Amino acid sequence: PLQVGFEDVIAEPASAHSCDKVWICSHALFEVSKYVIYKFLTFLLAMPMAFAAGVLFATLSCLHIWIIMPFVKTCLMVLPSVQTIWKSVTDAVIAPLCSSVGRSFSSVSLQVSHD
User: Residue 86 belongs to what domain range?
Assistant: First the structure.
C-alpha cells in the first residue's frame, strides 16, 4: 500500500517551523482527512472497480479460450501445407527470376573516375 506520511507532504524546514499547536493540529487533520477520504473513496469506488475488473478479466479469458487459442492451433496445423506451397512458388518463380537478374547485373562493370 501507499505509505504517505505527514512529513512527506508538509516539509517545513527546521529553521521555519510553525507553532507546536499548529503543527500538531495540522498533523492530526492530515491523518484524519486521509483516513476519512480513503474510506469514502473505497466505499464509493471499490465495488464498481471490482465489477469492472471482473468483467474485463472474464472477457479476456473467454477471448483467449474460445477465439485466440483455436486460431493459433489452426494456424499451426495449416502452416506445413503453406510452407510446402510457398517453397514450390519460390523454387518455380522467385529463384529463377533472382538468378536471371543476378546474371544480368553480373556483367555490368563500373568505372569510377575522379576528375
Answer: 6-92
Q: What's the burial of 26, exposed, middle or buried (CB within 10 Å: 0-12/13-18/19+)?
A: middle
Look at the chain and report how many structural domains it folds into: 1
pTM here is 0.48
Distance CA(100)–CA(115), nearest Å, equals: 35
For cell 529463377, the residue is 96
**Quick check: is 110 in a domain?**
no
- Kindly state the cell numbers that stand for 7: 512529513
Tell me whether residue 100 is in a domain.
Answer: no
* pLDDT over threshold 90, residue 87: yes
For residue range 13-60, list pLDDT tens digits in order: 666 667 778 878 888 898 899 899 999 999 999 999 999 999 999 999
Is the residue at 99 inside a domain? no
